[in-house]
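Example (one chain per record):
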Amino acid sequence: METTQSDTGSKLESEFEHSPVPPEHRKSLMTVAAVWFGFPMILTNAVPGGIVVAMLGFKEGFAAILLANLIMFVFVGLLSYRAGQTGKNFALQTTETFGSVGYIVASGFLSTVVVGWFAFNTGATGSALHNSFGWNEALVAAIAGIIFIAATFLGIKALSWTGALAAPLFIIAVIIAVAIAAGHHDFGGVTGYAGIAGGTMTFGAAVTAIMATFLDSGTMAADFTRWSKNGKQGVIATASAFPIASLIAQLSGGFLVAAGAIADPGTAGGDFTPILTGPGNIVLDIFVVIFVVVNLGSVCTHCLYNGALSWSHIVRSKMRLLTLILGAIGLAAAIAGVWSFYVNWLALLGVIVPPLGAVLIADQVILRRRLVGRVERRVRPTAFIGWGVGAVVGLVVHETLPSLSDAIVGMVVGLVVYLAIELARRPAHVGTRADAEEAHAAVGI
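Predicted structure:
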């Protein structure tokens, strides 16, 4: 049984790195929803929304953004429902599906990727304030990163606080940006915006790009929704992020691009900070600094929390210690400029992550009754086969059929392959009644 205090002896609640969250430690729907709501409603999520609209035009871009977010709701919602039922985090889920040793590959891969996103968004904080005010980019990133690490150290409660603050700040910032843009641009032609000349992005690629922005932490949704009182509340909390918060962020960027308010939208996407800093108003400039730090701080703390929680389970340590270690590594990467490889991250995630999540859904949700009494194995090859085949097919689609969404194809293939293999074989179960009862209790059914 885990304690309710951290290693330092302070009054910080246990993060339950190695066991399900007990019922008495579950959080209210509002708290869990706050964790999710402020996560995708961020400036760096407005960027891909703007790029998609710039490449496809407003109507087709809107359709791609909407479809991607609805798929994300189903994808993340199913994983969240299971997490709310069992109280298990992502590492515990992957242990059941990929094996007591095999999970290290799946969990280690994704938890490393999200630390990369922490580095990217920390670097983006320095870049945004450098571009807006000429401040030293590396110094700003370093200061911001230290703040983000400190907030993550406080745990799940701090994530709900940052989310509850980041979301309204984003909405206020968008309203101000739209008001400023309205004085210089005609919004009457927004819905008829046809996109920039020479746009080469296909509809399928656009769907993948939108999904890829949160596929990693979406797959690790259990880290957040395990705190829900039940599966239903986990799904409701998820809906606050996908589609609601994510749509607000991405469509805000897309709207301002379609209105002609953003220079070079094919590259800058929906980044509207230049609109806010354009008037040169000192009060508005102060707001921009607060907005950028808090808004990007929300996604940074969430990603670092994901990474630290999973790695703490892998190395049998504590989330807070890994927060400091991984935070330092991510901060060094941010200062080194890793944030500039944004497009490469999206391409990687769009191919590799979806089938991993699909295998989890197949095993944890569709075949959940088979978890009862199932023999624990060090490695479960069927899970890796499903993930691997899905990833390979997704890669082939990415290279040869750009009109399709490699994220969706990989997801479907991974799920179908895993189900086909598992349903064709006789499940191995533990032999005794006592073992079965213990396994029954462990999966929370």
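Caption: The chain has 19 helices and no strands.
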